[in-house]
Every structure is written in C-alpha cells, then in structure tokens.
Amino acid sequence: MRKKLLCCAVMISFLCSCVSHTGNELDDYDALLALPSQRYRAVYDQDTVFLRLIKKGSRVKGTLNFVYGNGLKEHGSFKGWMNGDTLLANYHYQDQKGSWQRNPIAMLSNGKTLHLGVGQREFAWGRAYFKKNEPIDYDKGRFIFMKND
C-alpha cells in the first residue's frame, strides 16, 4: 500500500512539474512591470498620442492612448513583434461608446522616432487585418512618435 501511495505521490509531483509554462515575461503582468519601457509621444495638430513600449527580444507589448483635440479619447494596449525595423501588432482599445475594438497597427522605427503606418485593411473572422500584398504607407501616417527622455 505504501508503495502505491509513494508511486502516486511521485507521479503527481512529476505531472505538476510538467505544467506548461511559456517563460515569456510579456504574458506575465508582474514580470512586465519589471521590464524597462520606452515612452513616446506624437502630436499632430491638436491631437496627441502617448505610447509606452516594452520590448523583449522580437516581441513587443505596450499601451497606446489617443487624446484628440475635440476631447475624444481612445485608450488600449497592443501586443505583437518587431521584424527588423518594423513593429506589427494588434491594438485592442475601447472607443468613445465603450465598445472594445481590435485593429492592426504598424510602425516603422527610425532611430529615435516611430512612424505610424496607414494600410488597406480586410476583415476575416470578425477581425481586421492588413491586406496581404498591399504596402503599408508610413509617409501618410499622421503620427510620428518622438522618444521621451
């Protein structure tokens, strides 16, 4: 009987140690707060956007808060990756009506600046994506983020 109990205890401890853990600090909120972040701000006419960016390898996560000159605000978070000098992510935000929206975002890194890109979108499975084989135009974007030191 003792051997069976000991065997069960060993099996349970083995199974508990095999629980899946991604080891990705970007998925753990407490670990996320410990990572250094970069802060940016972009101004276009009377509109201001605040960006907080956390990078871990090629993965990125952060917040993006729009404050428009007419008093409207949008705030949310994004999660994605850096591919060379290009940031690609999904931006999940709350609009003025309180509805949650999800849109793709793309930014081009140029030293101390990030240029928010504009691209054609398509919808599939209830979500927006950038159209494949359609370029993202970083010159058309209104917001150029400057690093806050």
Roughly what is the average pLDDT, rounded to an integer? Answer: 81
Through-space gap between termini: 66 Å
- What is the topology, as strand order, of the major beta sheet? 1-2-3-4-5-6-7-10
Specify Rg, calculated over alpha carbons. Answer: 21 Å
Strand content: over 45%
The share of residues in helices is 10-25%
Q: What this model shows, in words?
A:
By secondary structure, this protein is mainly β. The chain has one domain (25-147). It has helices at 2-17, 29-34; strands spanning 38-44, 47-56, 59-67, 73-83, 86-94, 100-110, 113-116, 121-124, 127-130, 144-147. Strands 1-2-3-4-5-6-7-10 form an 8-stranded antiparallel barrel. Strands 8-9 form a two-stranded antiparallel sheet. A hairpin with a 2-residue loop joins strand 8 (121-124) and strand 9. The longest helix has 16 residues, at 2-17.
Task: Note the main attributes of this structure.
single chain, 149 residues, mainly beta, eight-stranded antiparallel beta barrel, two-stranded antiparallel sheet, 2 helices, 10 strands, globular
Compact overview of the structure:
Helix content is 15%, strand content 49%. By secondary structure, the protein is mainly beta.
Q: Which SSEs are present, and which pair or pack?
A:
Elements lengths: L1 H16 L11 H6 L3 E7 L2 E10 L2 E9 L5 E11 L2 E9 L5 E11 L2 E4 L4 E4 L2 E4 L13 E4 L2
Antiparallel strand pairs: 1-2, 1-10, 2-3, 3-4, 4-5, 5-6, 6-7, 7-10, 8-9
